[in-house]
Design brief:
Mean pLDDT: 92
Helix content: 40-55%
Strand order of the largest sheet: 1-2-3-4-5-6-7
Strand content: 5-15%
Low-confidence stretches: 283-287
Distance between the termini: 51 Å
Shape: globular
Length: 287
C-alpha cells in the first residue's frame, strides 16, 4: 500500500481505498493494491435511495454503519490514474464503479462516463463494470455508450411495493429501474441483478412469479444471489411479510427450469467469461 501511495501521492481516491483496505479489510480494495482481479472505483458521496440496510450511512446512532462513506467526487484523472494500470497489468482485471463505501455512482454519471471513455481509448484490456440502483435510464444509456462492459443493478425484490419499502427511493420510480435493466441488455452489455435475498420474501410464491416475469421481460443474464445483511425479524416486519416461502433451493430450481440460460453467481465476471460455453448473448425476450 505504501508503494502505491508513493507512486500516486496526490490521488485522493487512492487514499480512500488505502483506508478501506487497511481499516475495513475490504478485499476489493486490497485487490487494487495487489493489482489483481476486481478493483473498486468509488465515486459518489450522495445517494437517491435510503436503504434500510445501508452499510455506509445510517441516520441513527443505535445502529452505526459499517464504515464511512467517501466524502468527495474524484476527478476523471484520478480515476484513470488508478484504473488504467490495473486494467493493463492485473490478471483477470475488472474495475467496478459502485461500492459499499459510497452512495450511488449514477449520481456522478458524467464524471464516470468521461473516465470510462478515457480508459477505453487508452486500452482494450480488462472489464469495466457499473454497479448501481439504475434510477436514471438516460444516464444508463450514456454510460453504455461511454464503453461499459457490464452492469449490475441492485434490487431486494422485483415487486414494486417491497422494493419501495426497502430502498425508499427519492426522486425515481421502480419502473425506471426496470427500464434501466432493459436498456443495458438492449445495448449489448452483460446485465446482472444484485439480488439481495432473504427467505420469506425472495422465495415467496408471489416473488418467484414476479421474478420469472421480470427475467422474461428484461433478458437479464445473471442473478447474483447475495444475503441481505440485516436482522431478518426487523426486515420481515418492515416488509410486512406473513407466511412462509417455498424454500430458496426450490426457488432457484424453478427459475432455472423456466430459464435454463440464466446464470447464478456471486462475483462479477470478466468479458472473456460472461457466457460459459453453450450460453450465447441472446434471449427470447417475452412480450
Amino acid at each position: 500500500m505504501r508503494k502505491r501511495l508513493r507512486e500516486m501521492p496526490d490521488n485522493r481516491l487512492l487514499e480512500q481505498l488505502a483506508r478501506c483496505a487497511v481499516d475495513y479489510h475490504c478485499f476489493a480494495a486490497k485487490n487494487l493494491f495487489f493489482r489483481r482481479w476486481e478493483a473498486p472505483l468509488p465515486t459518489s458521496p450522495v445517494c437517491n435511495s435510503r436503504c434500510l440496510g445501508c452499510i455506509s450511512l445510517q441516520p441513527s446512532d443505535c445502529c452505526p454503519s459499517n464504515h464511512e462513506r467517501i466524502s468527495f467526487v474524484p476527478t476523471p484523472e484520478e480515476i484513470v490514474e488508478l484504473a488504467l494500470p490495473h486494467l493493463n497489468e492485473a490478471p483477470e482485471p475488472i474495475v467496478s464503479y459502485g461500492q459499499g463505501c459510497e452512495g450511488d455512482p449514477i449520481m456522478q454519471a458524467d464524471t464516470i462516463a468521461e473516465a470510462t471513455r478515457r480508459l477505453k481509448a487508452a486500452t482494450s484490456k480488462g472489464t469495466v463494470n457499473f454497479n448501481s440502483n439504475g434510477s436514471f435510464p438516460d444516464r444508463v444509456r450514456m454510460l453504455c455508450d461511454a464503453g461499459m462492459d457490464s452492469m449490475r443493478f441492485s434490487m431486494n425484490s422485483v415487486q414494486e411495493e417491497f422494493y419501495n419499502r426497502y430502498y425508499r427511493p427519492v426522486g425515481y420510480k421502480f419502473s425506471q429501474v426496470v427500464e434501466s435493466v432493459k436498456c443495458a441488455k438492449e445495448r449489448g452489455l452483460f446485465t446482472m441483478i444484485n439480488y439481495l435475498v432473504s427467505p420469506g420474501l425472495t422465495d415467496s410464491e408471489a416473488e418467484v412469479d414476479a421474478l420469472l416475469k421480470f427475467i422474461g421481460e428484461t433478458g437479464v443474464d445473471m442473478l447474483q444471489m447475495r444475503n441481505l445483511s440485516i436482522d431478518p425479524d426487523f426486515y420481515n416486519k418492515r416488509m410486512q411479510l406473513s407466511g412462509r416461502g417455498i424454500g430458496m433451493y426450490r426457488m432457484l430450481e424453478r427459475v432455472k427450469r423456466e430459464f435454463p440460460r440464466i446464470q447464478f453467481g456471486y462475483f462479477n465476471r470478466t468479458r472473456e467469461n460472461f457466457y460459459p460455453e453453450g450460453l450465447e448473448n441472446s434471449w427470447p425476450i417475452k412480450s
